[in-house]
Amino acid sequence: MTLQTWWLFVVTVFFISATPGPNMMHALSRSVEFGFRRSTAAMAGCITALLLALVLSMAGIGAVLTAMPRLFDVIRYAGAAYLIYLGIKAWRADESPETSRPERGSPVGASAWRLYRTGFLVGISNPKLLLFAAAFFPQFIDHHLPVLSQFGILLVTYLCSDTLWLTLYGVGGHSLSRFLSRRPVRRAFNRLTAFVFIVFGIVILRAKA
Q1: What's the predicted TM-score (pTM) here?
Q2: Confidence band for 100, pLDDT divided at 50, 70 and 90
Q3: How many Cα atoms within 13 Å fall on the side-chain side of residue 95?
Q4: Residues 85, 202: contact at Cβ < 8 Å?
Protein backbone atom coordinates (compact mmCIF):
# COMPACT_ATOMS: atom_id res chain seq x y z
CA MET A 1 0.00 0.00 0.00
CA THR A 2 1.48 3.29 -1.11
CA LEU A 3 1.27 6.57 0.79
CA GLN A 4 -1.05 7.89 -1.92
CA THR A 5 -3.40 4.94 -1.42
CA TRP A 6 -3.39 5.49 2.33
CA TRP A 7 -4.27 9.18 1.93
CA LEU A 8 -7.13 8.22 -0.37
CA PHE A 9 -8.34 5.86 2.35
CA VAL A 10 -8.01 8.60 4.99
CA VAL A 11 -10.12 11.05 2.98
CA THR A 12 -12.72 8.39 2.19
CA VAL A 13 -13.24 7.17 5.75
CA PHE A 14 -13.16 10.75 7.06
CA PHE A 15 -16.34 11.52 5.12
CA ILE A 16 -17.86 8.10 5.77
CA SER A 17 -17.39 8.58 9.52
CA ALA A 18 -18.81 12.11 9.35
CA THR A 19 -22.11 10.88 7.91
CA PRO A 20 -24.84 11.05 10.57
CA GLY A 21 -25.79 7.50 11.46
CA PRO A 22 -26.88 5.48 14.51
CA ASN A 23 -23.45 5.71 16.18
CA MET A 24 -23.14 9.46 15.74
CA MET A 25 -26.73 10.14 16.79
CA HIS A 26 -26.22 7.90 19.82
CA ALA A 27 -23.09 9.83 20.85
CA LEU A 28 -24.95 13.10 20.39
CA SER A 29 -28.00 12.04 22.39
CA ARG A 30 -25.94 10.46 25.20
CA SER A 31 -23.90 13.64 25.54
CA VAL A 32 -27.07 15.73 25.70
CA GLU A 33 -28.59 13.46 28.34
CA PHE A 34 -25.57 12.58 30.49
CA GLY A 35 -22.88 15.11 29.63
CA PHE A 36 -19.78 14.68 27.49
CA ARG A 37 -17.58 12.98 30.10
CA ARG A 38 -20.05 10.20 30.85
CA SER A 39 -21.01 9.81 27.20
CA THR A 40 -17.46 8.66 26.44
CA ALA A 41 -18.46 5.24 27.79
CA ALA A 42 -21.14 5.01 25.08
CA MET A 43 -18.61 6.13 22.47
CA ALA A 44 -16.20 3.44 23.65
CA GLY A 45 -18.96 0.87 23.13
CA CYS A 46 -19.53 2.08 19.57
CA ILE A 47 -15.79 1.93 18.83
CA THR A 48 -15.51 -1.58 20.31
CA ALA A 49 -18.35 -2.73 18.06
CA LEU A 50 -16.63 -1.18 15.04
CA LEU A 51 -13.33 -2.85 15.95
CA LEU A 52 -15.03 -6.24 16.36
CA ALA A 53 -16.89 -5.88 13.05
CA LEU A 54 -13.73 -4.94 11.15
CA VAL A 55 -11.72 -7.81 12.64
CA LEU A 56 -14.52 -10.27 11.89
CA SER A 57 -14.72 -9.04 8.32
CA MET A 58 -10.97 -9.68 7.98
CA ALA A 59 -11.59 -13.18 9.29
CA GLY A 60 -14.09 -13.80 6.51
CA ILE A 61 -17.36 -13.45 8.39
CA GLY A 62 -18.62 -11.06 5.73
CA ALA A 63 -18.26 -13.80 3.12
CA VAL A 64 -20.07 -16.25 5.41
CA LEU A 65 -23.02 -13.88 5.79
CA THR A 66 -23.15 -13.41 2.03
CA ALA A 67 -23.16 -17.16 1.46
CA MET A 68 -25.79 -17.74 4.17
CA PRO A 69 -28.54 -15.17 3.58
CA ARG A 70 -30.84 -16.75 6.19
CA LEU A 71 -28.25 -16.18 8.90
CA PHE A 72 -27.78 -12.66 7.61
CA ASP A 73 -31.55 -12.11 7.78
CA VAL A 74 -31.70 -13.24 11.41
CA ILE A 75 -28.95 -10.79 12.37
CA ARG A 76 -30.50 -8.07 10.23
CA TYR A 77 -33.92 -8.43 11.82
CA ALA A 78 -32.41 -8.37 15.31
CA GLY A 79 -30.36 -5.25 14.53
CA ALA A 80 -33.32 -3.46 12.94
CA ALA A 81 -35.57 -4.35 15.88
CA TYR A 82 -33.03 -2.94 18.35
CA LEU A 83 -32.69 0.35 16.46
CA ILE A 84 -36.47 0.72 16.23
CA TYR A 85 -36.70 -0.04 19.96
CA LEU A 86 -34.20 2.76 20.65
CA GLY A 87 -36.27 5.06 18.46
CA ILE A 88 -39.45 4.29 20.40
CA LYS A 89 -37.55 4.76 23.67
CA ALA A 90 -36.25 8.16 22.50
CA TRP A 91 -39.76 9.19 21.42
CA ARG A 92 -41.12 8.38 24.88
CA ALA A 93 -38.12 9.84 26.75
CA ASP A 94 -38.64 12.22 29.66
CA GLU A 95 -38.73 15.80 28.40
CA SER A 96 -38.24 17.54 31.74
CA PRO A 97 -35.26 19.93 31.94
CA GLU A 98 -33.70 18.00 34.83
CA THR A 99 -32.78 15.05 32.61
CA SER A 100 -30.78 17.27 30.32
CA ARG A 101 -28.35 18.23 33.07
CA PRO A 102 -27.06 14.97 34.50
CA GLU A 103 -24.12 16.58 36.22
CA ARG A 104 -26.62 17.94 38.75
CA GLY A 105 -28.20 14.57 39.36
CA SER A 106 -27.77 11.82 36.80
CA PRO A 107 -30.63 9.37 36.23
CA VAL A 108 -30.38 6.29 38.38
CA GLY A 109 -29.03 3.18 36.66
CA ALA A 110 -27.05 5.02 33.97
CA SER A 111 -23.77 3.38 34.93
CA ALA A 112 -20.70 3.53 32.74
CA TRP A 113 -21.16 -0.17 31.96
CA ARG A 114 -24.77 0.39 30.90
CA LEU A 115 -23.77 3.28 28.64
CA TYR A 116 -20.93 1.21 27.19
CA ARG A 117 -23.19 -1.80 26.58
CA THR A 118 -25.86 0.28 24.84
CA GLY A 119 -23.23 1.94 22.66
CA PHE A 120 -21.85 -1.46 21.71
CA LEU A 121 -25.31 -2.79 20.81
CA VAL A 122 -26.01 0.27 18.66
CA GLY A 123 -22.69 -0.16 16.87
CA ILE A 124 -23.02 -3.89 16.27
CA SER A 125 -26.70 -3.80 15.30
CA ASN A 126 -25.96 -3.17 11.62
CA PRO A 127 -24.72 -6.41 9.98
CA LYS A 128 -24.12 -4.50 6.75
CA LEU A 129 -20.99 -3.15 8.43
CA LEU A 130 -19.40 -6.59 8.08
CA LEU A 131 -20.17 -6.74 4.38
CA PHE A 132 -19.07 -3.15 3.88
CA ALA A 133 -15.73 -3.79 5.55
CA ALA A 134 -15.22 -7.05 3.66
CA ALA A 135 -15.80 -5.28 0.33
CA PHE A 136 -14.23 -1.90 1.16
CA PHE A 137 -10.93 -2.72 2.81
CA PRO A 138 -9.51 -4.99 0.05
CA GLN A 139 -9.71 -2.06 -2.40
CA PHE A 140 -6.83 -0.39 -0.53
CA ILE A 141 -4.66 -3.45 0.11
CA ASP A 142 -1.77 -4.44 -2.13
CA HIS A 143 -1.82 -8.24 -2.16
CA HIS A 144 1.81 -8.32 -3.30
CA LEU A 145 2.80 -7.01 0.14
CA PRO A 146 2.12 -8.39 3.65
CA VAL A 147 -1.64 -8.13 4.05
CA LEU A 148 -1.84 -8.22 7.85
CA SER A 149 0.29 -5.13 8.41
CA GLN A 150 -1.68 -3.19 5.78
CA PHE A 151 -4.96 -4.22 7.36
CA GLY A 152 -3.62 -3.07 10.73
CA ILE A 153 -2.81 0.38 9.33
CA LEU A 154 -6.24 0.70 7.71
CA LEU A 155 -7.94 -0.54 10.88
CA VAL A 156 -6.20 2.00 13.12
CA THR A 157 -6.90 4.77 10.60
CA TYR A 158 -10.61 3.93 10.48
CA LEU A 159 -10.88 3.75 14.28
CA CYS A 160 -9.12 7.11 14.67
CA SER A 161 -11.44 8.73 12.14
CA ASP A 162 -14.55 7.30 13.80
CA THR A 163 -13.31 8.29 17.27
CA LEU A 164 -12.68 11.83 16.08
CA TRP A 165 -16.20 12.22 14.73
CA LEU A 166 -17.81 10.55 17.74
CA THR A 167 -15.97 13.03 19.93
CA LEU A 168 -17.08 15.96 17.79
CA TYR A 169 -20.68 14.79 17.92
CA GLY A 170 -20.35 14.30 21.68
CA VAL A 171 -18.93 17.80 22.16
CA GLY A 172 -21.74 19.13 20.00
CA GLY A 173 -24.29 17.37 22.20
CA HIS A 174 -22.70 18.81 25.33
CA SER A 175 -22.87 22.30 23.84
CA LEU A 176 -26.52 21.76 22.95
CA SER A 177 -27.50 20.61 26.43
CA ARG A 178 -28.25 24.11 27.77
CA PHE A 179 -30.27 24.99 24.67
CA LEU A 180 -32.16 21.70 24.98
CA SER A 181 -33.06 22.39 28.60
CA ARG A 182 -36.22 24.06 27.30
CA ARG A 183 -38.97 21.46 27.22
CA PRO A 184 -40.35 22.15 23.69
CA VAL A 185 -36.84 22.08 22.21
CA ARG A 186 -35.97 18.88 24.04
CA ARG A 187 -39.19 17.28 22.84
CA ALA A 188 -38.26 18.18 19.26
CA PHE A 189 -34.75 16.76 19.76
CA ASN A 190 -36.15 13.51 21.18
CA ARG A 191 -38.50 13.23 18.21
CA LEU A 192 -35.65 13.83 15.77
CA THR A 193 -33.45 11.22 17.48
CA ALA A 194 -36.34 8.75 17.46
CA PHE A 195 -36.98 9.43 13.77
CA VAL A 196 -33.33 8.80 12.85
CA PHE A 197 -33.12 5.51 14.75
CA ILE A 198 -36.44 4.24 13.39
CA VAL A 199 -35.53 5.19 9.82
CA PHE A 200 -32.19 3.40 10.07
CA GLY A 201 -33.97 0.38 11.53
CA ILE A 202 -36.44 0.33 8.64
CA VAL A 203 -33.64 0.76 6.09
CA ILE A 204 -31.81 -2.24 7.56
CA LEU A 205 -35.05 -4.20 7.67
CA ARG A 206 -35.77 -3.54 4.00
CA ALA A 207 -32.18 -4.08 2.84
CA LYS A 208 -31.42 -7.16 0.85
CA ALA A 209 -28.62 -9.44 1.98
Answers
A1: 0.67
A2: very low
A3: 13
A4: no
